[in-house]
## 1
Amino acid sequence: MPTEDSDAMPVQGEQAPIIRIDASPTKELFITMLVRDLSLRDAIGDLVDNSVDAARMLLEKRDATVKEDAEVLLSEFDYEALKVTITANPQEFIIEDNCGGMTVETARNYAFRFGRSSKADKTPGSLGQFGIGMKRALFKLGNNFSIVSRTRTNAFTLNVDVNEWAEQTDWKFTMSDYDEDAPPVAAGEQGTRISITNLLPDVAGQFGNPKFITNLSVEIENENVYNIQKGLTIGVNGQRLSARPLEILTSPDFTSGYFEQSIPIMDKMGKDVEVSVRYIVGVGDPVLADGGWYIFCNDRLVTGTGPDQSPVSGWTGRQSDGGPIYHDQYERFRGYVFISSVDASLLPWNTTKNSMDMDSKLYQGIRAKMIEMMRPVISFLNNLKKEREADNPEENRPLHDRIAKTKVVALSTINKDSPQIAAQFEAPKEQMAKQKKSQQVIRYEESKTRIDRVKKVLNVNTLPEVGQRTFEYFYENEVQ
């Protein structure tokens, strides 16, 4: 009988031997291929997302504690007390937070698995979805990493040399320093510190480039604009990031479009769940870079450059399925869509969280609603443009007069009960007065022979030139 590894043919009538093919992954796949299409900024963004998720979990625990203990100090747990700090230079990368930390059990059984275990605790409304963000970020940056984490009663340190680990057949990391019964510490002392050294050459080069650090700061700032506005502090190389204002203009004449919906969807386990979506559209100040659609998934802005101004959000050109191509005529457009799900894997964005999944039926329906809601705003902005054309005097611009009387309202103050909202955007329909033309047309007929003789004398070639020159001659010699 042939052995499992034998190439011998089975005798006729006998059952062929079973040959098992090794399909297990290699560590090289995770160390190299898994990070190939991941940008350095997106990798760091994944680590920031982990800190934000930890903050969410800490606040979830706070809410549970409040129900049990009326003496809990809420100030220790509010967003205003939570911080994420990043240090990036050619020698090392460090990200540190005070957002609650990670338990030894979580680190041992779930956090370092290559893929999310179905048994792992889920953070409602989290940003992580596949369980690979932290690992591929670590491999993307360098060859040595250290993780120190502290919860209220748990503490551990994990040190990994990636090159040494890659040579071992065992996939497990070794945690040599941990304590599952540590003395309790206050909320502000609970957090995680990740430091990466022996950086990859390309990474070290980027971290030595001030322009890269500036762009990194802007991207993190944009992605976390909503959380920063709620009070979360994020700093890069000692500089605290600020949030661009999320605002909309309103007045008795201008009503923002507002719509909420819950979309049923089936998760991977076959369970019916709902994804909630909230849309707000209107107008803002005329700033080209600030116009467009702000798309949030679980409060995280999807496009790290700011608002989306591409076909992804409906700016396709009128010959396609959306609205016009975005340009300065629409710089006042403001659209906000918040897509929320308890299960982050149901959010319709791509794996790097920097754009939407255009093949997602969920997002196709959301995008169709976005396009529907943007049309009244586009019509108003088209009318606003007409008022500026053909040297129309400022006193004949009623829509400009109305929009000048609006006031800025923070987006966070708008909800379904707000007085300044309606099912769709509403704006004044007042039109500018028709201008009286200051010029008139003179028309007369003459024989071609006589006109040709006048053309020759005036040295011109066209009939309008003949009319203009003859009128000027008469006006200069007989009127003035």
Note: The longest strand covers residues 272-283.
## 2
Amino acid sequence: MRVAIIGCGKQAPKHIAGYRAAGVDIEPVLADLDEARARALAQAEQAEWSGDPKTLIGDRSIEAVHICTPTASHYNLIVTALEAGKHVFCEKPLCQTVGEAHNLAIRAGAKGLVGAVGYIYRFVPAFEWLHGLLNLEDGAPLGRPYFGIFRIGGRGSHQPWKHSVSGGGGARNEMMVHMLDLVLWCFGDLRNIQVLREGLLRPRRTIQGHSIAADAEDLVVLSATTSGGAELLLEADLLTPAFSQFAEVEGDNGSFFGSIQPHLPSFVFLERAVGELHAGRNELKHGGQSPFARQMAAFAEAVRRGPTGNLATFESSVALMETVSRLTGAVSGED
């Protein structure tokens, strides 16, 4: 595939590396409003670059467009790409409002184009395991889930816009959406969502050698109830000096613990054996392709044959955006 990558910050090289690690043959063409940044990354990746993102999107040789720009710019860039007949992979979150998400899903569907969002946790072996455990037709090995904790903590202070409300940043958009997407994928719809704590603990940040005033929240704690009655706690922050992430689910036949971090154990502990899982501790061995490689391979496969498996589509992001909107008690931005 000949792929346009718009935005040459931290995520762009991960996308290229993901394709290459998965053995997908691509020709990346890079673009950024900062031409020097596009040129530098193109040189490092032995790729082409363009000084005009919109012209690049319109190039007939481009088959798919990756959006790796700040959240506030996603919607307009995606509309431009879809109108040009391009498949789209967008970094999370898809956009800023429920109305925008609906519009993008409808536009992509009407044109028969793949629209995908970068929710990488769907491709982590531990969470694929959890999804399978909770969605078996003949009953979940954990039994009836009744409690769960999902946590993600990041450092922050990477880009000013990530700590700006106007830029679409904050712990909710940058971090919590990952855990919400994971919970919705595993459990389905959520009820009784409550914001237990949302705040700004570090109002000043030093980013790229400059002190800036942050106005986007850097801590969010939620509670929610699944359709099956399990009580969940979700915590996300931009406060953790060393990245930390895990999920724990308790059921009346056992427990699950897993993480994207390979140094942490991922296991299921069962009181009674179920199928191939024995009573006691069942370990999941980390290894194989990286989640990024598997995600990029899934997108390339979707472009060829249509979305399947774990890929987060624009349609699934509508449900996620609706859930996020419920955190403020109102659905905003609907057309």
Note: The two ends are 34 Å apart (CA to CA).
## 3
Amino acid sequence: MASVCGGSLALMDAGVPVNATAAGVAIGLITRYDSTKNNIEDYRILTDLLGIEDYMGDMDFKIAGTKKGVTALQADVKIPGLPLKIVMEAIQKAAEAKSKIIGLMHECIDKPRTEKKENWPVYEKLEVEAHKRTRLLGVGGINLKKIVCRNRCSDECLLSVSQIDDTTFQIFAPSQFAMDEAQEIINKLLSTEKTPELEFGGIYNATIVELRDIGVMVAHPSALGLEVGQDLQIKYFGRDPVSGLMRLSRKVLQGAPR
């Protein structure tokens, strides 16, 4: 039943708002049993029994709860039956022991912790615009791997970054220090290039920096007489909702061909 006590203490130490402290105790029973008369001639009740007492004894009765009541109980009985007197006595001793254990627990901590501990694990959500995902991930996820490996402890990765949807990531860190370190790296990755503030439907002057086959659907870019470094006028139509890339058009400004 130590797991009940330890679990309750751990929850309060972690700041979990539990309603009350819970503790557990195991009650054992040793009898001198007359099998011919199906009668218990003598008995002793053991409080907080050990393994050998459980093995040699005639009952293993576990009870857990708060000071106000019982939350769980379980019993293994190895003799044909128990008189109500022994059952009531076992419950009484269990209640007394449970209250004493809770008192000892309260000497350590008596309510959920409210102040934040430095070594508490933390998690945060990170919103990343679609066109910045590649900067965060890197080729083959190399950037995320670097962030995780900076917080590696032995062979276990304590920090993790997982993607929830197209623009939302979740960061889990073993401490606030590790979280701050990871966020500093992420901020550097996402701020390496300044994103221009463009107005939907606005017309801007742009400079060609690269020509690709996918730049024109019907003819090769060279057929239009375009070259790197050339200035031209384009219209901005926001970003693609899937890829996050800018949607720019030069054709809409040229009008219909005559």
Note: The mean pLDDT is 80.
